[in-house]
Amino acid sequence: MFVQEEKIFAGRVLRLHVCSVEGAEWLEEVPEDMTVEKLKERCLKHCVPGSLEDPKSITHHKLIHATSEKVLTDTKTVLEENIQDKDVLLLVKKRAPPPPPKMAEVSAEEKRKQEQKAPDKDAILKATANLPSHNVDRTVAHHNMRDFQTELRKILVSLIEVAQKLLALNPDAVELFKKANAMLDEDEEDRVDEIALRQLTEMGFPESRAVKALRLNHMSVTQAMEWLIEHADDPTVDAPLPGQTSLEAASEVGASSAGAIAGPTLEADGEEPKDELTEIFKKIRRKREFRPDPRAVIALMEMGFDEKEVIDALRVNNNQQNAACEWLLGDRKPSPEDLEKGIDTTSPLFQAILENPVVQLGLTNPKTLLAFEDMLENPLNSTQWMNDPETGPVMLQISRIFQTLNRT
């Protein structure tokens, strides 16, 4: 008996369950080597009689594998699409693409966008040309909108003077400032994270170099290690940070003065030294010397500016590098000397601050004076004192009074 070759090598026949979106269901027996397009033709003949008369009918439909939710490719075979016996297929009509917008619709959309567009300066001037003009004192308006941080510095200078006078009236004034000095000695700002330092020294880095790296990188061990590796061959790697020498010297002066004010010292005739508290205030302030950002100092000095000029610029501009650079390139106003000027003590703002009970109570606390001194020299520390339970309420009241008077 003669058997056709294709019958001998025919693929396995699969029984597939097919569903249409109209709800029709039937079984299709198809060989593995049948293309998806041929299978789609058979499905259309079954559920949509006469549909093949339109050649576009096949391209307007698609078969989807129900389990994988995959759209089957027309040119691939059933085997290539990895369809198994008893799988379920969905016959779905493709969604027609949206028609392109007509010219009239495009014009309407553009018109709508133009209507929603904000007016430009010329349109505003044209619309307000017939309105009566009023003489506005722009100097006063600008003064009323002045920056709180700029004005805060003047307020702090004057409040420090008031706090010193109030604390000097306290019979336990010297004892209070012994406590104040102890607070300064415990200040974490000058400390180096011991754990971070130990990690770096255990890696083999010299301690002095590791301390410098940690201070430059805000106590981040990873960044400090990267800095140490990067500057390993730098001849200036062990040089002190710009401004650090003078700061350490100031700290030593302050430290040595701590013992000097441990108690009321008496002269040979048994009287207290003249203006002892004034000297104590000066010594405390020396402990609070301005700390310039080392990275900003290095960056600005690399531009060719002198170290002293750079530190002055950073002090005037609250350690902001970009603002300090503009100050150095500009008219250098305000000057460092201007920072020592306080607010007009007869102004309504200062009088309102002094009349506030919370501020009055805070000015009798030596910690408030220390906070004022610290914010004066290191404005970036303001957040720390705003969050402090003792000094935070005082700063909050000063801010509220300023904002209230500023609006009026």
From TrEMBL:
Residues 108-121 have a biased composition (Basic and acidic residues). It holds the Pfam family UBA_7. Residues 185-231, 291-331 form the UBA domain. The keyword Membrane does not apply. Keywords: Cytoplasm, Repeat, Ubl conjugation pathway. Residues 95-121 are annotated as: Disordered. One of its GO terms (molecular function) is polyubiquitin modification-dependent protein binding. It is found in: Cytoplasm. One of its GO terms (biological process) is protein maturation. Pathway: Protein modification; protein ubiquitination. GO terms for cellular component: cytosol; Golgi apparatus; plasma membrane; ubiquitin ligase complex. This is Ubiquitin-associated domain-containing protein 1.
